Protein 1
Amino acid sequence: MSFLEEFQRWSFPGVQQRIASSNGARVEQALSRSAGQLDADDLIALLSPAADAALEQMARQAQATTRLRFGKTVLLYAPLYLSNICYSQCTYCGFSYGKDIRRLQLSPEQAEVEAGLLHAAGIRHILLLTGEAYRESSINYIGDCVERIARSFASVSVEVYPLKTEDYLSLRWRGLDGLAIYQETYDPRRYAAVHLKGIKARMEYRLECPDRAGEAGMRRIALGALLGLSDAASDVFFTALHARYLMQRFWQTQISISLPRLRPATGVDDVASIGDRDFARFLFALRLFLPDAGLTLSTREPAPLRDELCGIVATQISAGSQTSPGGYSDSGAARQFEIEDRRTVRQVADALAARNLDPVFTDWSPALK
Amino acid sequence: MAQSDPQPLVIAGRSFHSRLFVGTGKFASTAEMRAAIDGSATEMVTVALRRIDLSRPLEQQDLISAIDRSRIQLLPNTSGARNALEAVQLARLARELGGGNWIKLEVTPEPRYLLPDPVETLAATQELVKDGFVVLPYMHADPILALRLQDAGAATVMPLGSPIGSNQGIRTAESIRIIIEQARVPVVVDAGLGAPSHAAQAMEMGASAVLVNTALAIARDPATIAEAFAWAVLAGRSARLYGDLHSSERMPAAASASSPLTGFLGRPSQDNSGN
Ligand code: SF4
């Protein structure tokens, strides 16, 4: 039993069609339910363009729900790129195999130095990233980095190629408590079109990856869709279903969702740009459907938008991010994507405080692993 | 009789068009019990194994032969069992005698309130699931226990509304609400439903089904009250499908809020051609 079975009961074009044909009455019905009591049809209504007219009401309900469940707090974390070596070919990614970029992999010692810079800035929740390179970024290598960094960070997550359950378990023993794995798109047709080569091209293996992490007892799992690859609302729908499934099956694990928006400039030209109103609606709908899911905003989003959305729905944001290996100490290696919010950790924290929100750096203890 | 639900309830691959389950204890006669079953239009009937002779095939016994098993799922229950061992033994015996592999698990060590023992219920569920049973455990309205029972492979969870035979209705509403929100198996509210309005309330809250026994057994006219329960279940279910009626987190649709939250997002675009 994995999410694949539930996934196969739906069709992507079918969902897309239902989202497109929803209406105001259906939106109203969905909004009459308490947060957490919505079903898949309600979610479809709230993701649909018909819900735009009710955006303000959605925002109010989403804000009230967020405050009830999370209080006035926002968790800050930072990514640390260990390597940009990658043998997969994803058309939208700056690290894609065959791209003529400066490749670099930090040694575990260098990674610890980089992490130290984040630590000095106040960061205590960290996300370690690599490309898909099993030889260079082996499980053992990832484990070495995790182990060093876990000594001084409250929470260490990884975003790496999909692993087997036993590999997640072995990393858990070395200090890992979280996994981020984005499906990118749940549209099988588009998935195949943009993932040309490498293990990432195996859509189903990736879909089942959070199940394997859950089986390994991972404390937190982050899901996401790269909005713009296919019909965005439908991808949000499937991400939400996936999250709900995981919350039910692995009820001891915290689930969070991120919806990075793809920019047309990054190498795929057939990408629809997602407007801010649509983006906000997706987040509000997710909050009402899944009151307890963490909602994450990346530094791809501009600072003013991030601040506003933290005031309504977002519960965790990355801060002071660099998206290249060695980026914090200025290695000059290539970045995965360009960031929009270039503020320092301090500046982000101050902006949250100015909105009467508490920037939280630690909500976990390694003793709980 | 009342029309059936548009979406049947599915438990362990079997579809139920009625979401009212009926218990067979405490009736004045088998005839009254049968009248209640007919009036309710139920498709799931539970029978206490301690009330039948476990030394001969079940089909030859009055209580069982009164139930039309072509239409109704027989759900033997282990009431009276004080621990997991006793419950498992009863269940196996029932299966050997032709009672099928569905079992309503009841482990109630104290005889006054008949409250279910969480520790023994979990242990018995694990054992019976391993042994191939479809297990429907009776439990207190404890959300974590509900999750544990689901992990153990329970086919449903059956939290109590109030103690068995108390007819007090749903006194555990907030916990049942959480159980329903988190459940990945059907939630059947069992015990304490004394009036049709209690059953309607359970369905409005999102329960998948309810189980009623005492309220029918002690009624002056069990058949009529059973029918009233059937209507109440449908009414509550329709209300649930319609939308949430009493909601604590629901916001007033205040269109005239002083400072809109979404002002920073600009006006809706007239031209939605991008979508
Ligand atoms: S998205 Fe990941 S797997 Fe794909 S090219 Fe980029 S780094 Fe490699």
Protein 2
Amino acid sequence: MTLEDFRDPGRVRVLLGAIRQEAEPLAQRLGRPLQIMEVCGGHTHAIFRFGLDQLLPKSIEFIHGPGCPVCVLPVAAVDQALALAERGLVLASFGDPMRVPGTHMSLLEAKAKGMDVRILYSPLDALALARKEPGRQFVFFSIGFDTTMPAAACSLLAAAREGLGNLRFLCHHIRLMPTLEALLTAGELRLDGFVGPGHVATVIGAGAFAPVAARHGKPLVIAGFEPVDFLQALYQLLLQLKEGRCAIENAYGRVVSEAGNLAAQAAIAQAFEEGVDAEWRGLGLVPGSGVRVREAFRDWDAAPLLAFDTLPQRRPEPCQCSQVLIGRLKPNQCPHFGKGCSPQHPLGALMVSTEGACAAYHQYKEAIHG
Amino acid sequence: MAEVTLAHGAGGGAMQELIEECFLKAFGDLPLEEKEDQARFNLAELGAQGGELAFTTDSFVVSPLRFPGGDIGKLAVCGTLNDLAVGGARPLYLSAAFILEEGLALEELHAQVASMAQAAREAGVSIVTGDTKVVERGQADKLFITTTGIGVIPKGLALSIASARPGDKVLVTGPIGDHGAAVMLAREELGLAGDLESDCANLYPLLAPVLAQCPGVRAIRDATRGGLAAVLTEMAAASQVGIALEESALPVRSQVKALCELLGLEPLLLANEGMAALVVAPEQAELALALLREHPLGRQAALVGGVRAEMPGRLWLGTAYGGQRLLELPYGLQLPRIC
């Protein structure tokens, strides 16, 4: 199978037909549209990018979940990164966080003001930079879900093995499962099921999602990111609902195994300590969702560089991102959408990343649907 | 290895030597050799060649200086020639201004100047005037080149991005995003290998036969920074029309697609340096396409969409499944995504 097979219009048509056939009677039975949350921002992006939103029946409503690491990156994390760059350290970052607004500016604006901010494609590039410029102190702005944690962990472990003295990691990684559980426990969501995040599942394994079905009674099907992948998972989810089953299924078997990537999990466990309460933009404090660099690697942790007095005060968020994140508002129902808040001038995080629900709505949907 | 020093920009002997040894030797054509402060043209001769004079300027700051399929020198010539060609002008003369960073290897400068000379010769244009400045180390990135071009537009030809009408067809002269992808691959920090080449080329020989035989060509733009999406959005806004592209009709090399998948980028927003979009009256679209495909640069030319009355100022893409998505320009740079 090639990539094109997973984009094949014939397969997509067949799946769309099957989904339509299953969704209508289900919605009629419920007396409302089905509410499906796609947890991952990559799925939100795919839905709009391939125009699937216009092809799926109105009897399915998508709730765009919290699964975009950039969208949920708190202001304080950006401020911490900026504080380090202001001190003359070289701040190395993925491209995604560059536009996320901090209290006073974004990393992109900081770069324009002359701070040394470099865009990298991988945490491993930070190692290479630190080796190449031994006279400079580097900080890697380490963010992302379970997906990006293995590469960050491996880089940190490699830096420690080499005794590299000029590279530290500003760790703002978060884990998806505690958040899913927090959402489900909060009881504010009226959801019929989940399309599960394929990339995260690659690392943590399909089995890690078991509590979603067992404890919270919601079916979840893990999906890849091509149209055929996504629609196949959605179809399987509908079949579960039709048959009254509630299970974790894996429709991304070519990549995701039951146990996940054990080597990646081992690297994460070695480098990071789990179960730290973490602040999420839009959601507030999510217990146990964060990680920190283990004490054994303190010399490679950027957190000790940040004195408590430099941590900025929290400020109220101008947007209603939190309501969108838990599915209570559609992006275009936010009063700021497309007015004060646009991809050019984001007020809230969901407008920052191309995977944010608001940015995706703005970019792909709004003008066509009016 | 010899390097550019501040003396090379000080107006004295070192500068004279650089001009003689580097620029004059490479560009060689009169009237540059006359070393006046300006190039001079006979107005009657220019006027005999067409109805309007076209005049354009562009600065080139690409990093790295050399990339697969081209270098900054070739780019500095082709880029300006193309800005003339998409207005229907036959390019005639170029100026070239150089900002050199102290420490630039003279060997590199010679190579870039030779590349410019070759591109200009192949295009049949002369580099007739120029300027050199040297700035201190750190104040420029090795070498910046600004080229200005003059060409003549034949009588009766009036291309304009404001002239697209509903029903017109949209053509592209070749694959999308090659230059942007090749430059990205050439940047060492990406750490990826690939066999992609920039499409950097002079478009005039490709476009001239189409312009000569298809009076229905209404507008042409070379899709440089901002890519195809940017130029078509500009056309849609200037003409107050909508433009609809068919995703399946867009020629995109598989390597470019793969790179974009990997980094979360959009090929339609990647830069090109040898690809243009044409808006053509419907009855002449097939002829224009056939003429483009006759030229080696246009082998993969394609009809990719049409001009619509609805949604004026907007560009959208019909997906392979019958959905639509709107293309909006990113505010700034396309940044690679982590997941």
Protein 3
Amino acid sequence: MQVTMTVNDVEVTREIEGRLLLVHFLRDVLGLTGTHSGCDTSNCGTCVVWLDGEPVKSCTVLAAMAGGHQVRTVEGLAKGAELDPVQQGFMQCHGLQCGFCTPGMMMTARALLNRNPDPSEAEIREAISGQICRCTGYATIVRSVRWAAVHEANAAAAVTETTESPEAGEIDNAGQPAGSVA
Amino acid sequence: MQVPAPFEYERATSVDHAISLMERLGSTSRLIAGGHSLLPMMKLRLASFDYLIDINDLHDELGYIEAGPGEVRIGALTRHRELLESATLTAAFPIFADAERVIADPIVRNRGTLGGSLCQADPSEDLSAVCTALDASCVIRGPGGAERVLSMEEFHVGPYETAVGDGEILVEVRLPVRPGCGSSYEKVERRAGDWAVVSAGAAVWLDGDVISDARVGLAAVGPNTTGIPEISTALRGQTPSESLFEQAGAIAARSCEPATDQRGSADYKRHLADELTRRTLRRAVERARS
């Protein structure tokens, strides 16, 4: 069968089998290997991409089901050469450890910040509760998402040209948000 | 890499189109909604079909939550996230939000649907227990637009088996609205997003300070979601009290049929059925009074 979908703003058409999973379409057919494939059982969340702007586990969506829809992968997170604040946050706060869960975590984090620009630690942990990091606990991932939230708030404040810089959003010299989650 | 066995993919454009496709393709076809129960089973080769009929395009037709004076109607394609975020549904039946918070995880909830969950009929599935507690009816549409309305007891035939026949589709779940209602859900799970070790849903209807009706639905302690009429009988006409909840818990523990498995022993599950029945009834009564 033929499927046509939009991936990272580019329309693609390919001949596929009905049983092809979206994760394999992205990785093996389109060569977008930023999306990872981990557990195969809808548990680990390393295959998370956006379908029409919402995170989904692409190992549990048929490529055919994405026909006519918008897909965004980690390759579509940066704007040209400018990394998304979430990507910057993962760099600043060591959110990448081995890196395997990182693409899915970042896609979920970006979607969370789009809906909730100032999420609490509990809200971040809830958002990523369907994803597994096998390196440590999730402290640096949570910290990375908070960094992105604070960074975006500061950037927005700078745009509105407020004369007083908001204290809660100050970034200290170490690149950590003031009062960041420990 | 796990992939399903080969099948032909079809996409339905309306409920009637889905029904006509099923009529034409017969029992080798299966509807796929969110796919988060069906695809994992197909990947494990526990299920295979010649045809999958994708009904996600029917979301406009079958994705809704409508509160009327006598009942709340929910379209079968309403996604878990929509159920969780519906202020209307939470106000009428907080048991839904209780359950949705512990069903799978936020990303799975973006795709999975009410109808898909009920039709999967997994013995550990949470929404069947919710619908059992609320005395829900299931509306099934067949060829020619003929509709059947079944109770939850009639809907479930066995593990992974429902009364929905070939060429039929579950289109709507109806929840009767009666005054003085309070409801609550509790689940014990081993880790976030897992199937229940045991879960319980309870709904009570108070008339003044007397229980006019009460219903409990248990998941993961039998071949299907277990509704326990004996509890309803024991509670009707009584004034809520801790000893009454204890009595209900004892009935739940002895009425259910848990199996020892990797999630726990049968004895432990009976203990949970007892304790969760007490907790959910207690909370449901608190909510009915508030």
